[in-house]
Amino acid sequence: MFNRRIVDYLFKWKDKKGRKPLVLRGARQVGKTSAILMFARRYFENVIYLNMEKVEHQRLFRGEISLADFEKIIRIEFRQKIIPGKTIIFIDEIQNSVGLIKLLRFFYEERPELHIISAGSLLQAKIEKEGLSLPVGRVENAYLYPLDFFEYLDAKGETELLNFLKTLSFEENIPDGIHRKALNLFYEYTMVGGMPEVVKTFLEGANIEHLNNIYSSLLTGYAEDVYKYSSLANAKYLTFVIETAPLYAGTNISYEKFGGSNFRSREMNRAFDLLEKVMLVYQAKATKSTDIPLVPQRKRPKKLLFLDVGLVNYRMGIQEKFLGLKDLNDFYRGRIAEQIVGQNILSQYMNQAAQIFYWAKGKPEGRAEVDFCLTKGGIILGIEVKSGSSNRLKSLGSFGMLAKDALLLRIYSGILKKGNIRINSKNIPLVSIPFYLVTRILDV
Known about the structure:
alpha/beta; 40% helix
């Protein structure tokens, strides 16, 4: 069982004033159950674990249920008492119980002293299909993604390197030997990905063929889940996107005839929207804003990120090509670099839904595009994922000339440094960050 950053977040939730029942969202197999149980067993004397995928648990909580009846069931069927401060109630796959979803409101209103945590892989899609909704203002949402690079280092036992990178000042020099080691480990992580089962199996010494069996099983499981939250009429579109989207990760996509299909834009739009709700894909919208707030350009293509880079590599059949890799930016025209950077940026948003854009300026204004764009503390981060000298960062420089209160970042295989982009005789500050520090991008 890996240490996950979400455990520290849950610890803060545990002691929060005005604490609400918490719903942990995330795609299947990203480690929600393991992380919650690790937290629960570490900080509580008694853990009541309800798994709504088990028939024997489902039958106990069918239909409407009151708090009094809930506590009776726990006492009689599970032979446990609910003791405030010492007991935590964990409801797994809560989307399978309408009664328990509705009960979250009453836990907050009538029993706020209790610690209630739930998880759901298909939650948003399932409740929309059933015409339900979570009680607004009565629950707190949190989000879990595959392992980020720092979590991977922790799982691998690279404790000293991890501590160095986590406490590093952005003014500090990184010795060349440490830089090369961290970069090689990042390339290894980019090959394997962050799905917990895959990481565990890889660290136990499995070869690529064994890992491919797990990747295949995961993708098959996601395709089979389609029938749990969609009609038969829409299942073919969803299945097609699950199978095809990894091939387009890190690129701007068009819905019309996506992936060489004959499917219409409307059908693909709905499929992508639903798969985004279950957190299998993320679509970064375009913006041309140069000031906060960032306003999406709804008619421009979206940049596609898939759940995990390991699954992307498997579908592309390119794992072996990572051996001896010298520069991630030169690999598959930088698409894998954008996928892994985007994936790691997303994973930093544990307590809110991520709002990540890419910046695009139209042709009449002189075409320019910056890979990622987001806000932090009242400023805009413009992020370019590429290698090379600063004079190859024309789009980022163009953004910097126009944007107010912006910080320009380059993520690449080079060293950590601060410098400038020179545009029209003007020097614009630039922070260059090695790939292995992308997990700290919100700390810059």
